[in-house]
Specification:
This protein has 191 residues and is mainly α. The protein has helices at 3-18, 22-44, 47-64, 74-96, 99-105, 124-131, 135-145, 151-158, 162-190. The protein contains 9 helices and no strands.
Length: 191
């Protein structure tokens, strides 16, 4: 099934779920579970936290799908709920920490247990470069390239203006180019 057919099928499932069909909602959950989990992981940086966020988001998605005006808007609707849940999670986590110094001293989350969660990455270098991006830029670039969403859809999913999405994409591209260029230079020096 190509992307266009997949989107049409998702629209059909969203329309059926809006009408109250529990099988359609279950099919949507199966089709979107990994995408939303990847998005939650990009925002939280920890696989266990991402699973919790995605699970909580599905509760909101199931409750809110009946109020969805346009079935074609399901991807943005679902990503936005995950984004909000992840933001709530991060906000609670920050409150639990004792001060900004303790937060800044924490090590960057590792990829342990997260193998395969970022399926669109072609090389370990790209995975590392993406992991080094700030969460907002990582989410924008992944939704654009890995989830094939438009700038408008990303803006709706992340709850920010389209101009902000464009700025995040541009900044992320520049950082990725720089990081991958440095890696390539060091590989050439070693050869």
């Amino acid at each position: 099934m190509d992307r266009r057919q997949g989107r049409i099928f998702d629209e059909y499932l969203a329309a059926a779920a809006r009408a109250g069909d529990p099988r359609a909602l279950a099919a949507l959950a199966r089709r979107w579970e990994q995408r939303l989990l990847r998005h939650a992981y990009r925002l939280t940086g920890n696989i266990e936290d991402a699973r919790d966020v995605a699970q909580d988001a599905w509760i909101d998605i199931a409750r809110g799908v009946r109020r969805l005006d346009d079935s074609a808007a399901f991807p943005a609707f679902a990503f936005r709920i995950v984004t909000r849940r992840a933001a709530d999670f991060v906000r609670r986590a920050r409150r639990a920490r004792r001060g900004a110094a303790a937060f800044a001293a924490e090590p960057r989350p590792a990829f342990d247990g997260a193998e395969g969660i970022e399926t669109g990455a072609a090389s370990p270098g790209l995975v590392a470069a993406m992991a080094a991006l700030p969460a907002e830029q990582r989410a924008a670039i992944a939704l654009f390239y890995q989830e094939d969403m438009s700038v408008a859809e990303i803006a709706a999913a992340l709850g920010v203006p389209a101009g902000t999405v464009k700025t995040r994409l541009m900044a992320a591209r520049e950082k990725l180019k720089a990081a991958l260029g440095v890696m390539k230079e060091s590989e050439n020096e070693q050869a």
